[in-house]
Structure formats: structure tokens, C-alpha cells
From TrEMBL:
Keywords: Amino-acid biosynthesis, ATP-binding, Diaminopimelate biosynthesis, Kinase, Lysine biosynthesis, Nucleotide-binding, Transferase. GO terms for cellular component: cytosol. Pathway: Amino-acid biosynthesis; L-lysine biosynthesis via DAP pathway; (S)-tetrahydrodipicolinate from L-aspartate: step 1/4; Amino-acid biosynthesis; L-threonine biosynthesis; L-threonine from L-aspartate: step 1/5; Amino-acid biosynthesis; L-methionine biosynthesis via de novo pathway; L-homoserine from L-aspartate: step 1/3. NCBIfam families: asp_kinases (TIGR00657), PRK09034.1 (NF006540). This is Aspartokinase. The keyword Hydrolase does not apply.
Amino acid sequence: MKVAKFGGSSVSNAKQIKKVLKIVNEDPERKIIIVSAPGKRSKDDIKTTDLLIRLYEKAINNIDYQHKKQEIIQRYADIVDELDMDRDILDTIDHTLEHYIHELKDKPSRLYDAIVSCGEDFNAQLIATYNNSQGIPTRYISPKEAGIWVTDLPKQAQILDSSYEQIYKLNDYKEKLIIPGFFGVSKHNFIVTFPRGGSDITGAIIARGVRASLYENFTDVSGIYKANPNIIKDPEIIEEITYREMRELSYAGFSVFHDEALQPLHKDRIPVVIKNTNRPEDKGTYILHDREINSKNVISGISCDKDFTVINIKKYLMNRQVGFTRKVLGVFEDYNISFDHMPSGIDNISIVMRSNQIKNIESRVLNDIQKHCDVDELSIDHDLAILMIVGEGMNRVVGTASKITHALAESNINLKMINQGASEISMMFGIKVEDAEKAVRSTYEFCYHGVCIKE
Ligand code: ASP
């Protein structure tokens, strides 16, 4: 049995919903469907989830929210009318939003999650009702009914392991099941959402819970590109990629598939395919436990993300001081900062983190390092982008690093930092933010096409 998830653009209007249901109904193995909230219908459109966030902001600040609420109802009214459906569901939408606003006004973070979850919840109800009316037995299942029990931290739900037993029972239904993505329910009976883009996570949880043979993740591209299409014109699509490679790429900017969605899948090795709702015949990209390596697919993808900050510390004879790094990291712990990389030399260490981790507390962190660690030199650099070259094949093929550094040198890009973990699955290069796009272009062209971009 397959679990199929459809992203926001796939369910943004009646025409898209019909496409989705055609895909769903023509394959009897597609039994469980996860849907997002209606996404953008055009480039300048606003996602329903973002409209719901605006509604929340008005309601919580005691500003008249009726207009915003109507705007949201209208999004669904457009779909309902075009599908020629009964308008009753629009009253349910109105009442549900009012109910949450009145019940949860004193609990802002609970209200936020409840309102924001409505985008997927209404859409799932609507799509299930419509498919049923077309003569295909279909049932809406709420996350609570499905057994998606989660931790109680607003906006950051995590599945409770005990949920999987109940989720397995979804196998017993004979109808097609439509489940809203993006949220679960806590043991205190609050709606709790996953991080943004979290419908992928719901799909992964359900796929694992029912032991699906395949998790199909439908979106608006025909797979995962080898590099950012905003930088490379028509990049090639990856045919197969492992869970570990995908995790590394999505960490540094590949946003087609939520990185938290990989966790439930890799344990039970459930394969994922990223497919295009608008071109379902395209093969898509498979995310698997293992893949065959050949000379052409040593590197699976190249990504680059900006917004990193690095703190550089120098301490003469650092390598002989027991406990020095522990003291430094203790300061990070005191400020609840998580870091991403920590390249080091014999007398120096650099700590790389997302810039938002240290925003507004920078001078206090630096002061504390100075005070507790007796360092010789301390500096901070905000101008850091991270280029990640990812590929399982790198630990079997000699010479990949040389290719990459050659391409970067020919393009006159200075490498501030180089790091490769023991798993040899990725190579990380710290470069100047202004070199980010150039670095992707030069490594992509050289590694995939042997073309050197000289500067
Ligand atoms: N609708 C939610 C969002 O926009 C979740 C999702 O679409 O995956 O983040």
C-alpha cells in the first residue's frame, strides 16, 4: 500500500484538486492521502496558512478580524463553487474558526496552533467529501482519529513512539482515507503543529505507521534538482538519493522535502519518491536507504546556504590543554546555542552556527568566552556561506576533493574553511556570502560537465 502526500500548490484550487484525485483514484494502492492547506495559485498569491497566521495576529491583538476570516472562507468558497459542492462546509469553517478564537484566546500559543492547523483540516474535509460525491468511497480522518499523538510543545510537535500502533490500524479501512497534514494532538488534547512545511512529516509518520511500500510526495517539480534552479538553469534531476544524502542537502538549503520527515522513514527503510502532480508520468526522485554508485553519480547534489556566523578562537598550545573545548562549548550551552560545524587546528577552533542562533546575544557570548576560557584571540565573522557537496560515492572514489577545489580556485573563490566528516558523505566549504552563487555554478559545471569556469 502506498501513502501519497500532496503539497500546497497541488491542492490550491479546484483544477489542481481534480488532478490530485485523478492520480489517487487511478491507483488502488494509493489508499492513504495526506493533504496540505491550499497553497499559492500564482506567484503573488498568499498561502492559506499565512492568511491563518494573519487572522491569529488580529484575533490575539483584539483587532477586528472579520475581514481576514472572510478572506480565508473565500479561499474555500472558490474551491467549493468550482467543484459544484454544497456550501454547508463553509459554515463549518466559519464556526470552527470562531470556536477556536473564543475558546483559546487566553492561551496564545495554543490558539496559534489550532488556527494554523485549520488550513489542512478544512482542505482534507472538503477533498474527502468531494471524492465521495464522485462515487469513490472516501473518508476524512482527523489526526486524532488516525492516532497522531505528539509532544506538547507548540509549533514543534514530535511524534510519540507509542502512536505507531494505533496508526497501523488505518490498514483496516476499506475506503480511501484523506488525512490533513501538519499537526497532531497532544495527550492534553491540544492541537500541536509540526514546523512549517510539516505536512511532509505527517506523510512520513503515516507511511511508517502503516508500513507502506512507498511514500509518494507530490509537489510541483519533477524531483529533486542536483543544484538550486534559481542559480543553475535547468539543472538535472537526481534519480536516486539516500536518506543520509538528502538530510545533508536539505540542511543546506534543499527545501523540496522536509528534513524532519526523513527520521520516521529511514528506520524502517520506507522508500520515498518525490513526484510532480502536474506531470505524474515523470519518474521523480527516489529517496532510499542505499543506491548504486557509478562514475556519473558520485556526487548527488550541491547546495549552498547563507546566514552562517563563525566564532574563531585562538589559544596557544590549545592541543595540550585538557578541557578547553568543553569550557568554550559550556558558554554555548549557557545561551542555548546549537552549532553546526567545529573545524579545528592545533591552536585554534572555529564554531559555525546559524546566524539567528546568536542574534542579539553576540557581545554577551563573546564576553563570556573571553572571561571563562582565557583565549589569546577571539573574532566573529558574519560573512559566511556554506557550500555542501554531497555524495555517498565520495568515500569510494579518489579525487573528488581535488576536483572541487580546482573548480573553486579557477573561479577565484577563497576557501575560508574546509571540513569533511569521517563518513565521507559530504564536504563542507566555508566561503564568503558574495561567492555563494558563483561557487555553486563553478562546482556544478566542473563536477557534472567537466566545464571549468575561469575568472
Ligand atoms: N501548510 C503548512 C505550511 O505552509 C504545512 C505544509 O504545507 O506542509 O507550512
